[in-house]
Amino acid sequence: MADWHALREEMVARVRGRGGIGEEVTGALRAVPRHLFLPEVPPGAAYRDEAVVTRRDAEGRPVSSSSQPTIMALMLEQLGVEPGHRVLEIGAGTGYNAALLAHLAGPGGRVTSVDIDPGLVGRARGHLAEAGFPGVEVVCGDGAEGFAPGAPYDRVIATVGVWDLFPAWLEQLAPGGRIVAPMDLNGVQRSVALEWADGHWTSRSAVACGFMRLRGPFAGPEVLRPLDRDSELMLSLPRAREAGDVLAVLGGPVSELPAGVAADPAALADGFGLWLAAHEPRWCLLSESRPRWLAAGAPGRWGFTTALGIVEDGGLCLLRPREAPAPPVVRAFGPGGAGLAADLLAHLRAWDAAGRPSTSGLRVDVHPGGDPRPGDGARPGDLGRPPGMGVPPAGDGGGFGTAAGDGLVIRKRHTTFVLSWPAARG
């Protein structure tokens, strides 16, 4: 058997090498043996800096995993757990993150983890007991409702992608508390650390991330559509709509157009990905675990290959990043692909002209009160500008064409999100 102690040290070194990880979180990564939470996985794989899918549904969609250690560490830094804290975790997974939280909260703290899947709850309890963390309480329930018997909590963290801030979380959070969650921002996710200030929730930090979505009656409108089981090709859309036969156009003729805007793959995946989601209702993301359809796509940051683009029935275009100074190219598929490619290039030029806003400069303000109409999911008319931020530019009337420096409003069921880049204004 491989020396898991050495493997764990190598993993910790890789995570720390990415930057932004302090001594407390590093100590937690060293103290908790990840392989005990992934008993079906060889230690060599358990200690890679990659997400490990642990369960899929009948159609092949991943529904549970052990997240990438780097993003787990970054979110723990955002959360700022201190000894003695009471912590609520939404999404138990394997139990590994709950163990890290328990280490950070120390003997005087308390960690409660909630998951909707009874099977996952049972396994997480077993893993935690074996790893020496029997004090973590793992309960079966809908994470959107929190866990009132353990309230109030100093910290709340979601390890699943969520579409809204749910009232129960806010009610169960202690004064001065903090929430960290992978929030859906029109189909893309950013882990946002939120605290209450001046009558609303405001972000203290934001980190790019990608999590499986919350399940159950409080799930959002995002769509993950399996396309090919062999390669595990998936199509992600911000909401349900007709996209046509994506495999048919992918397998047909392709043409490439130079982008004319040089940017490295990381900047495109982060900053441009967020820009496109905010401005283009037809945007999509393709991902696959085994190279086949997206062999020319971006190297996978989370352990799989991804390609950002625009899709509609009869056409598809995908951005193909290349290492700077070589500019990316846009690949057009299907009879409508050329027109979509032109639209994608226009968005790329607009992002560049706006100063290439990215997650590092993003501010998210969350105001109480949202859209009371039935059915979650932002509609075209729901996206617009915050009050006092000027007249929206001319466009198709869909409400997506807002300038990054002026902000973007996303009305949810319970809250209203305002996205802005304050530095871009100055």
UniProtKB/TrEMBL annotation:
Highest taxon above the source species: Bacteria
GO biological process: methylation
Predominant subcellular localization, coarse grouping: cytoplasm
Record-annotated membrane-spanning stretches: none
Composition bias type Low complexity, residue spans: 377-394
Similarity annotation: Belongs to the methyltransferase superfamily. L-isoaspartyl/D-aspartyl protein methyltransferase family.
Protein name: Protein-L-isoaspartate O-methyltransferase
Organism in which the protein naturally occurs: Streptosporangium sandarakinum
Lineage: Bacteria, Bacillati, Actinomycetota, Actinomycetes, Streptosporangiales
